[in-house]
Write a structure and sequence with these properties.
By secondary structure, the chain is an alpha+beta fold. It has a single domain, classed as Bifunctional nuclease domain (Roll), CATH 3.10.690. The two termini are 27 Å apart.
């Protein structure tokens, strides 16, 4: 079973190439941190805030390609956690069929917030995160800026 999550916050640290996003359970109190790169963190933040850009960047390009090919991003799912690495998939609807495409969680979240589609995490991943003390709720490790993210009441 998959659990619907929301992007709770983005932590951008000035002293590290690894940034963090935190997903929070919509109908519960579980949270998971995911390490992302600097470019991905800024892409997620930019798409979340609807910041205009003069030319399409990677996530805008992929969103356009999905639409031009007659598909629609229906949801994203973080479905696996293996040796500290999260795995995600894009779930597209095309011609009455579901097409699943493997992707990085950071790209999945960036596309989801840009298209305002749900983010899901498998129950198995949430269970594994809860068992691994190193992947519990986190604090900002580098003194960077905490940017409040997308929650159900945020628009």
């Amino acid at each position: 079973m998959d659990v619907q999550m929301t992007l709770a916050r983005i932590l951008i640290g000035e002293m590290s190439d690894a940034q963090l996003i935190e997903l929070a359970e919509i109908d519960g109190d579980r949270r998971i941190p995911i390490v992302v790169g600097v470019a991905e963190a800024f892409a997620i933040e930019r798409r979340l805030k609807g910041m205009p850009i003069p030319r399409p960047l990677t996530h805008e390009l992929l969103s356009s390609v999905i639409v031009v090919l007659g598909a629609r991003l229906a949801r994203v799912v973080i479905h696996d956690l293996n040796e500290g690495t999260f795995y995600a998939m894009l779930c597209l609807e095309q011609g009455g069929e579901e097409v699943q495409i493997d992707c990085r969680p950071s790209d999945a979240v960036a596309l989801a917030v840009g298209a305002d589609v749900p983010i899901f995490v498998s129950e198995a991943v949430l269970d594994e995160v809860e068992q691994d003390a190193g992947l519990g709720p986190f604090d900002d490790p580098d003194g960077g800026e905490s940017i409040e993210g997308h929650d159900p009441e945020w628009s």
